[in-house]
Amino acid sequence: MSNFRLTNNAVKLGGGRFTYPDVPPESAIITLGNELLASTESWRTGKTFAKGKVLTLHRPPGHGSESSWYCRVSRHNKEDATFDEFWSKLGVNKAENEKQFVSAVKQVTEVKRISATQSVWTLYYTYPPPVSPRVFTVLQTTYLSSATPRSGLIVSIPIDLSDDEVLAKIERKGVRGRYVAVERLLELDDGEVEWRMATSATPGGMIPSFIAESSMPGQIAADVTHFLKWFHTIRNRTAAEV
Fold first, then answer.
1. Which residues contact 215 (CB under 8 A, 6 or more apart)?
2. DSSP 8-state code for residue 16
């Protein structure tokens, strides 16, 4: 475990790059994800968004990371979504659902399903000119705990497919970006849900890191608003059909 850590360059295994099919054990990924989220309790408090609903946190470079980490935390009542509703959209087919509420995501492809709780996904993002499209390929691992309080974890880590010619051909062409994201849904005693997400990302290409990072708190906070707006559309449509 000492040679295995989360970075946005790649997961390091014994100092080398993380390439498919050298997939780390799911249990190791989940353990590191939980450890990362536990550490966010001591990160520097940043801005709040969505009328105070979303709090952001920040950890500068260091701790074995090549760039900054950002976190957002929000609490939600049942009017927003229940724990089961959140998990059904974030813990199941997350990449496909993300395409519905993140406007920059234009195409998602499941490159390889490894198990019921682990898959390789490639996501194709487009941005206004002159920024070129970006391709992010990640290994997504999920874990749903039935213990009380219930919790669910989604860990996305960058993976290099260049050693597998068949899988590499599935990726879209574009500038290769990298990100790590760890998300946790936690059912609280009062029935509310805490949604906590920590991420570190580099867009690749010629975009300076400081420009990308300066907009990170607002971007990750906006995802909460966009998700809820999309989810309520789905929920209301389903209710109307009943």
1. none
2. B
Q: Shortest CA distance to 181 belongs to which of 194, 167, 168, 196?
A: 196
Tens digit of pLDDT for each residue in 78-101? 999 999 999 999 999 999 999 999
* Of 161, 157, 155, nearest in space to 143 by CA: 155
How far is Cα 234 from Cα 185, in angstroms, rounded to an integer? 20
Cβ atoms of 11 and 24 within 8 Å: the answer is yes
The Cα–Cα gap between 231 and 146 comes to 24
Beta carbons of 196 and 188 less than 8 angstroms apart: no
If you average pLDDT over every residue of the chain, what do you get? 88
Q: How confident is the model at residue 104 (pLDDT cuts 50, 70, 90)?
A: very high
**Two structure tokens written together for 103:** 């406007």
Packing angle, helices 94-101 and 216-241, rounded to 10:
100
Residue with tokens 């194709």: 124
SS3 state of residue 235: helix
Distances (CA, A) of 154 to 14, 118, 133: 24, 10, 25
Structure tokens at 141: 């691992």
| pLDDT 10s digits, 186-237 | 999 999 999 999 999 888 876 766 677 788 999 999 999 999 999 999 998 8
